[in-house]
Amino acid sequence: MLSEMERLFLKNRRVAHLATADRDAAPHVVPVCFAICNDTLYVTIDAKPKRSLSTPLKRLKNIAQNPAVAVVVDRYEEDWGQLGWVMLRGHAEILIDGREHDQAQALLRSRYPQLKRMQIAELPVIAVRIVMPRAGVTCRWQSHTSVQLPHRCAYTPPMEASGARRHVLTWVGTEAPSLWRNC
Predict the structure, then answer these.
(1) Which pLDDT band holds residue 157 (cuts at 50, 70, 90)?
(2) How far apart are CA 79 and CA 150, in angstroms?
(3) Minimal CB count within 10 Å: which of 68, 86, 87, 99?
(4) Are the CB atoms for 91 and 64 separated by under 8 Å?
(5) pTM, to two decimals
(6) Which stretches does DSSP call E strand in the chain?
């Protein structure tokens, strides 16, 4: 479901923002470390002190009440011509143990050396099953118009990126134009 370009963008980012909502639709957003395997994004609950062990984290309570989540992974630069982001929507599950839990923990530890020093084996993992009506990566350039590129189309960049114009460009094919390799 994820394109090669989306996977490359996600691989090169270290922090995501996980958005959950409780049964009353009250939103809650937190920065998280993540890893992706196939079409599942994993987030571990790490060993940093957050709350007492008897009180579950808000994100875990929200997922138990409402499994619909969104994850945004972005790149901010002072040069707004270099901005980029990917939004993933999905249904989250809380993995307490088992093979998938253990494999996710190993994947996360391989991506984040800090987790190797933490006792996380007994802590839950959030598994976000990515559900997207279409695969796409959006990179933003300065402009005022939105242009959505169709599947496998070519992109010709604007002659100049001025503050008076804003393009939102989306590639939904399996191979990105070379211009987008660094998005």
Answers:
(1) very low
(2) 27
(3) 99
(4) no
(5) 0.73
(6) 16-21, 27-32, 35-37, 40-44, 68-75, 84-95, 125-130, 137-141, 144-148, 166-171
DSSP state of 117: T
Q: Give Cα 176 to chain centroid, integer Å.
A: 19
Q: Quick one: average pLDDT of 44-64?
A: 81
Sorted by sequence, the CB contacts under 8 Å of residue 76 that are 6+ apart come out as 83
Q: How many CB atoms lie within 10 A of CB 106?
A: 13
What is the sign of the dihedral through the CA atoms of 41, 66, 170 and 166? Answer: negative
Q: Which residues of 13-36 are buried (b: 16+ CB within 10 A; e: fewer)?
A: eeebbbbbbeeeeeeeeeebbbbb
> What DSSP character marks residue 168?
E
Beta-bridge partners for 89 = 70
Q: What does 24-49 look like in DSSP terms, one character per residue?
A: T--EEEEEE--EEETTEEEEE--SS-
pLDDT reading at 100 higher than 60: yes
Q: What is the DSSP string of 58-72?
A: HHHHHHHH--EEEEE
